[in-house]
Amino acid sequence: MKIRIKFTKHGTIKFIGHLDMMRYFQKAIRRAGIDITYTEGFSPHQVMSFAAPLSVGVESSGEYFDIQVNSTKNSLESIMLLNNQMAQGVTITQYRRLDDSTKSAMSKVAAASYIVYYKDNKEYPFDENKLNEYICKYIKEEDTILVEKKSKKSTRVINLKPNIYEFSDIRNNKSNLSNFEEDKKGFFMMVAAGSVENIKPSIVLEYFYNKVGVEFDISCMQIERIDVFYDDNGVFKPLGNEGVDIF
Asked: Within 8-142, where are the H helices?
């Protein structure tokens, strides 16, 4: 039986990397008594697959991983059992049964949404009355946005334009964001994610700041991933929409 689990990650645990989070959940699942399936062979391991690794220092309200189980309790009880094992800053919010034909979360990721806002006591460098004008001019009205994308092994030039699905003033999206604080200043964006192209918010922001002529300093900002999406015939839907709650 396939299960998709959604969780949030906030606070100091944002500094724990992806591999350590995987090990953490493996231990938590054992302690919670989840009847997870193990692979066969000399070194069996839990059947578990994460949707999209989260960069160190980034918080999230929508992270996902899939597991295979032999049997399961209902969703509410399973969430309670898992949350009893969670460290401060991690909360399980969904536990849903997937159809056997559903592809893994990792293989379906197509986009991710983020908010990027200025930390307390950090000066906001934009004229708020002109911000929407800047966004239209340098993001929405541009046909091509060429930037250098660096990896550990190489640097290549990519066109960001087809990979930016939305970019706006965070204040224009507050109705879609949970726990939105009125005094937050920054940006909302939805960008390509997954195996084909994976765009980090920082590369979009750096381009935008350079165009506007504002010094870019990511250390002044907090990045939070809001959700991760799959492409359903041209419509982006949260991975949490798949599956059903267990009663």
From this structure: 18-32, 75-83, 105-108, 131-135
CB 147 within 8 A of CB 131: no
53-71 residue pLDDT tens:
999 999 999 999 999 999 9
Residue closest to 67 by CA, chosen among 34, 112, 19, 90:
34
- The two tokens of residue 91 are 């909360």
**SS3 for 204-232, per residue?**
HHHHHHHHHCCCCCHHHEEEEEEEEEEEE
- Cβ of 95: how many Cβ atoms within 10 Å? 26
pTM value > 0.85: yes
Show the tokens assigned to 51: 């949707």
Q: Report the phi/psi class of residue 33: left, alpha or beta, with left for phi > 0 and alpha for psi in -120 to 50.
A: left
Tokens representing 228 are: 């991760």
**225, burial (CB in 10 Å: exposed 0-12, middle 13-18, buried 19+):** buried
Q: Please classify residue 87 by burial: count the beta carbons closer than 10 Å to its beta carbon, then call 0-12 exposed, 13-18 middle and 19+ buried.
A: exposed
The answer to whether 26 touches 39, Cβ cutoff 8 Å, is no
Phi, psi of 51 (to 5 degrees): -70, -55
How much is the average pLDDT of 17-32? 96
Unique residue bearing structure tokens 């160190």: 56
Residue 214 predicted with pLDDT over 90: yes
DSSP state, 38?
B
Q: Which amino acid is at 104?
A: S
